[in-house]
Amino acid sequence: MSIARIFGGPRTASSAADEYHRRKRLSVHGAIRWVIIAILVIIQVYPLLWLFITSLRTEHDFASGDPFGIPKQFTLENYARAFEAGDLGVYIRNSLIVTFGASFFIVLMGMMAAYAINVLGFRGSKIVSGIFLLGIIVPVQIALVPLFIDYSQINLLDTYASMIIPLAGFAVPMSVFLFSSFYNYIPKETYEAASLDGAGPYRIFWQITLPLSLNTIVTVVLVNSIFIWNEFIFANTFVLSDGLKTIPLGLQNYIGAMGNTDWTATFAAVCVTITPLMLIFMVLNKAMIQGLEGGATKG
């Protein structure tokens, strides 16, 4: 018997070759993956970068030069004009009030409804849960005319409540779904132990369920805040005065006579309005992912 066969020489060489080809395939796959990721990042980042750069261009540079080219001059006058001439501060204030108000009711009603359905339990709870799920597919457009008629009869038009109520109402079904999925993930023994210690349903909710739901709360707030912040339909239908216009509705004021648009001021206004959402999303991104994993996939 040869030494090569005793020590497995041919098999060692074959294994080395297989290992080389395997690593080569992995490196190729890794390179392709990184190329795809880079392309996606460029697609996502370039519009934001172009928006920010354009917001710093002068009106003459933007109008006479290449809109997608490198700016020749930079200025902060666009931001000053956006706040002074466009009442951007008023629009931001109104959007903050509507966003915080609607998010508060979305979280509160979603948590309480999911707690009653999944934790407390009652006869017909599955039917109620199914009705909430059906609410997810209801389009918001069908409620515009009935709500407008009702608001006009009770003098609720042109108020913050006229926007907060429908925004919260149409978002509650998805909120109930996320909270219900998360509550199903919480072990029943936790509630049973609390009950044996003498805790009632309200105490269990505030001291056990609420602290455990923080990641899901962050997820619900972020997902709905992005939609509420950019919402246009309800604001355009129920708001009549300039003092209550939100950001999407107020940006129409940057259109001047004969349809002329102050593009550089508009881009500056858009940069100001999207920056808070981007910063909040970057800070709370991890909590949002954990909330989606815990509340949506483990239920």
Walk me through the structure.
It is built from 15 helices and no strands. By secondary structure, it is mainly alpha-helical. The protein folds into 2 domains: 3-55; 81-297, MetI-like (MetI-like fold). Helix 5 (88-120) packs parallel to helix 8 (160-185) and helix 8 (160-185) packs across helix 15 (285-297). It is flat and about 75 Å long. The protein starts with a helix and ends with a helix. This is ABC transporter permease protein YurM. Keywords: Cell membrane, Membrane, Transmembrane, Transmembrane helix, Transport. Pfam families: BPD_transp_1. Belongs to the binding-protein-dependent transport system permease family.
Q: How many structurally independent domains?
A: 2
- Give the name of the CATH architecture of the largest domain: Orthogonal Bundle
Strand count: 0
Structural class: mainly alpha
Low-pLDDT stretches: 1-9, 295-299
Beta-strand content estimate:
under 5%
Order of helices and strands: HHHHHHHHHHHHHHH
Specify the overall morphology. flat
Number of helices: 15
At the fourth level of CATH, the homologous superfamily of the largest domain is MetI-like
Q: What is the C-level CATH assignment of the largest domain? A: Mainly Alpha
Biggest pleated sheet: none
**How much helix is in the residues?**
over 70%
Gap between N and C termini, in Å? 62 Å
CATH fold-level assignment of the largest domain: MetI-like fold
Rounded mean pLDDT score: 80
Radius of gyration computed on alpha carbons: 28 Å
